[in-house]
Amino acid sequence: MGGFVFSRRVAVHACALWGLVSLWPLGASAQTVGDEVGGGGCSTAVVRGLADQLVGQLNCLYPDTMEPFDEGGQIEFASGAVLGNLQPGAIDGLMAALDDRAGSTITITSALRSLPQQYLLYQWYLAGRCGIQIAASPGRSNHEGGLAIDVSNHDAWRNALENNGWDWYGSGDVVHFTYVRAGEDIRSASVLSFQTLWNANHPNDAIDEDGLYGPQTEARLGRSPVGGFEIATTCNPCAQGMHARFDSAQAPPEAVVGGEVTISASFTNTGDATWVAGQVSLATNPPVALGADVIDGGSTTFTHSFVPAAEGPATIALGLVDAGGAPIPAGCEGAPTGEVTVTVLPAADPPDDPSDPDDPVDGSPDDPAPDDGDDLDGDPMVDGSGAPGESSRAVGLAGGCGTSGPLGKEPPVAVLLLMGLGLALVRRR
Q1: Nearest-angstrom CA–CA distance, 41 and 45
Q2: 27-45, pLDDT tens digit by residue?
């Protein structure tokens, strides 16, 4: 395969695609792969837990080299040992063959094969067990590269498969077909997947990560648990690159139009890339640039101030962007964004200013008390129009005996005496 380089590079892929991978061993058995060589069985399903982890590790190291395909419809898996994965081109060739024989079922006994599965088959083959016609040594089988299938009803499917890019091995291995139209030779990736996963779980007993199957790798493979390792993968796709988690925000519940509002927002770096000062910003208007580097796992708080121009609820979205303005997405945990809402009230009237003669203040000289309607206090009488003097008395007289004057006061004593004199004259008549 041209250009396929084994290295510790890591790339992002869809977490859901490889749902077979778990964070814990799929089996709790203390049995090792080596124990199963003479265990009496003939199915590689006994190492399925470890095999599933290695499929995930392969795609972790070299994304998009394998694709899953499901049992169902025209496809039947012969046993629980079958790993439903192949290179994309091989899957296309398989689907085309199915179309040629619509309505017929193909029974697959093996597709992608992990290193421990190939190891057992090869050991059983050497021991003359299980009726195995031929088996390649670990790291050398086309099954390990995702370019081969074994089909139990091979006679019925031979023409359809050969017409769509599958080469039949022949009488030496009648069930075996290799896809030859497209794909890459990545058989050694099966070995490298095991080597990297072994080292992640045994840092004090590390082996070379070279993709070559030799005595070091074989010895560790024989001691590996059939149910899988505690550390299931060396890379976590959703933790690679720039990722953020919104933690919390603080803001006043209320503010007034024209008043400054200050909010703070805290975030955690959940990726594996350092946030560089000035290269990450809070996506507000205006943006708030990061002031200091934040390493993976670290947290920081941004502070943003703004002046609301209108009353009502003001909702501020809180998220981070990179130097190019692209939002920093979520990683393996939590949401990357949040928000706060501040209720903006109308601006309050300004307070009284006693030093300003044009600013009426309760109880101050420039805020006179209303006139009480008589001249006894030395103030001119004031009617509703502000005119002093007799006009007020005239209104008082018009009110009649016992009525109040224009300001709600009783008539003066002199007015009462005159009214009494008038009544007496009337009676004499």
Answers
A1: 10
A2: 334 599 999 998 888 999 9
Q: Are 229 and 53 in contact (CB under 8 A)?
A: yes
pLDDT for 412 equals: 54
Cβ atoms of 56 and 22 within 8 Å: the answer is no
Q: Check if CATH label 3.30.360.10 holds for domain 15-222.
A: no
Residues in the chain: 429
DSSP 208-244: --SS---HHHHHHHHTSBTT--SS--S--GGGSSS-E
Residues 6+ positions from 302 with CB-CB distance below 8 Å: 264, 265, 266, 267, 282, 288, 290
The residue among 184, 185, 183 whose CA lies nearest residue 91 is 183
**Rounded-to-integer distance, Cα 161 and Cα 164, Å:** 5
Nearest residue to 290 via CA among 273, 275, 306: 275
241-345: CATH topology: Immunoglobulin-like (2.60.40)
The pLDDT tens digits for 69-127 are 999 999 999 999 999 999 999 999 999 999 999 999 999 999 999 999 999 999 999 99
Kindly state the percentage of the chain with pLDDT values over 70: 74
Q: Distance between CA atoms of 249 and 86, rounded to whole angstroms? A: 47
DSSP-assigned letter for residue 327? B
162: amino acid identity, one letter: E
- Distance, first Cα to last Cα, the chain: 141
| CA distance linking residue 389 with residue 399, whole number of Å | 17
Instruction: State CA 134 to chain mean position distance.
Output: 49
User: Which sequence spans correspond to the domains of the chain?
Assistant: 15-222, 241-345, 373-429
Find where tokens 């303005």 sit. 325
Q: How far apart are CA 76 and CA 104, in angstroms?
A: 10
* Buried-exposed string 12-32: b where 16+ CB fall within 10 A, e elsewhere: ebeeebbebbeeebbbeeeeb
Q: Give the phi and the psi of residue 235 in degrees, each rounded to 5.
A: -135, 145
- The span from the CA of 46 to the CA of 39, in Å, is 10
User: What tokens does 271 get?
Assistant: 């990726």
* pTM for this prediction: 0.54
Model confidence at 351: pLDDT above 70: no
Mean per-residue pLDDT, 154-175: 96
78 residue type, one letter: A
- Topology agreement, domain 15-222 and domain 241-345: no
Task: Kindly indicate the confidence band of residue 235, based on its pLDDT and cuts at 50, 70 and 90.
Answer: confident
